[in-house]
Amino acid sequence: MRHVRTAVVIGGGIAGPVAALALHKAGIEATVFESHPTSADGVGGTIALAPNGLAALDIVGAGQPTVAVGRPAGRQVLRVGRGRRIDLPAPAGVGPLQVVRRGDLYRILRERAAAEGIRIEHGRRLVGAREEPDAVTAVFADGGEARADVLIGADGVHSIVRGLIDPAAPGPRYTGMLSFEGVSAAEVPEEPGTMTFAFGRRGYYLYWPAPGGGTTVGINLPHPRPLTIGQARAVPSEQWLRTLGEVYGEDTPGGDLVRRLAPADLQVNGALFSMPPVPHWHRGRMVLAGDAVHAPSNSSGQGASLAVESAVQLARCLRDLPVPAAFAAYERLRRARVEEVAARAATINRSKTPGPVAQALMPILMPLVTKLVLKPEKTLGPVQRYRIDWPAPATT
């Protein structure tokens, strides 16, 4: 006898549609409710999906379509200032990262959901929920309601569901950086598939050869306060480029990449956030997934992959166990893993906004730290080789 038959999923980004697809595969009817009025096709910058994230996408039939529109990044290089370049070792035999446009992944997931008959309703902003012993009802700003056996909050770092589960839950932490991206006309002497992580004198950036020529550059600009996407995009691109020139102008090749980035080609993505550990992942018939409960900083390279994993693992637990045992099993399977990745990323993140002393010592310390500490089989291997055993029954 199936314990859960229906689910309301709040959030139409990545974790929400993946959860709905995995629930459908498990025989559970799910409907996704997204607050934005339209789909996000073509919107957003690029993200890297690690082998473990692609394996989880394979479970819901989205892995191969994602690889088809992505570009492999099989080589990673660390660059400190103008000096030494260090090839970053990778775990053996796990495959490359796949760099994909966020908007393309949204489109793939939406098309997969449509093919499976899963509804995604836009313009439905959650404002509350009513719980009963055997059901939960989502209440939306438009006055509508949706009743189901469980409610899944996959509504991002600014999650409404997280506050419904625990009004005292922590909110997202600002990383001290704003995100920018663009394709610069400047060329870099790198082979295709090479991603370079560069620590400049005053800020961090990364870059890789663009498919049609030029160089794709992602910038984490140190900034004293967070700005929403709307606030950041209200600033003219020309003004942002002047700021980027002041911060990265003396870096190689960062200065050239910024100087040859046209205002029309600068994409402003707003503030970068991470989530501290969340004490309560679930309550009653409500549960959190994805960035709503674990959003490591972008230094991890695992944000999207962990969100996909959790969405699939949650569906597996709901397939096999009753509430609340399913939620408890899901948290047991996920919490230690995601918090370990987040803690490691937080350490890296602090080096992206170095003070004056750290800036001076960075060229000396970073190669030593890389040589002594970065042991891929120990740190990255267990993360990237992780696979969800979907056929195996989830247990308490």
Topology, element by element:
Elements: E1 6-10, H1 15-25, E2 29-33, E3 46-49, H2 51-59, H3 63-69, E4 71-73, E5 75-80, E6 85-88, E7 97-101, H4 102-115, E8 120-121, E9 126-132, E10 135-140, E11 145-148, E12 150-153, H5 160-165, E13 173-184, E14 194-199, E15 204-209, E16 215-222, H6 229-234, H7 237-248, H8 254-259, E17 266-274, E18 282-283, E19 286-288, H9 303-320, H10 325-350, H11 356-373, H12 376-379, H13 381-384
Parallel strand pairs: 1-2, 1-12, 2-8, 5-14, 12-19
Antiparallel strand pairs: 3-7, 4-7, 5-6, 9-10, 10-11, 13-16, 13-17, 14-15, 15-16, 18-19
Helix pairs in contact: 1-4, 1-9, 2-3, 2-9, 9-10
Description:
With 396 residues, this protein is an alpha/beta fold. It folds into 2 domains: 6-70 and 99-172 and 275-352 and 378-384, FAD/NAD(P)-binding domain (3-Layer(bba) Sandwich); 173-274, D-Amino Acid Oxidase, Chain A, domain 2. It is built from 13 helices and 19 strands. It has helices spanning 15-25, 51-59, 63-69, 102-115, 160-165, 229-234, 237-248, 254-259, 303-320, 325-350, 356-373, 376-379, 381-384, and strands spanning 6-10, 29-33, 46-49, 71-73, 75-80, 85-88, 97-101, 120-121, 126-132, 135-140, 145-148, 150-153, 173-184, 194-199, 204-209, 215-222, 266-274, 282-283, 286-288. Strands 6-5-14-15-16-13-17 form a 7-stranded mixed β-sheet. A 6-stranded mixed β-sheet has the order 8-2-1-12-19-18. Strand 1 (6-10), helix 1 and strand 2 (29-33) form a beta-alpha-beta unit. The longest helix is centred in the last third of the chain and has 26 residues, at 325-350. 45% of the residues are buried. The mean pLDDT is 90.
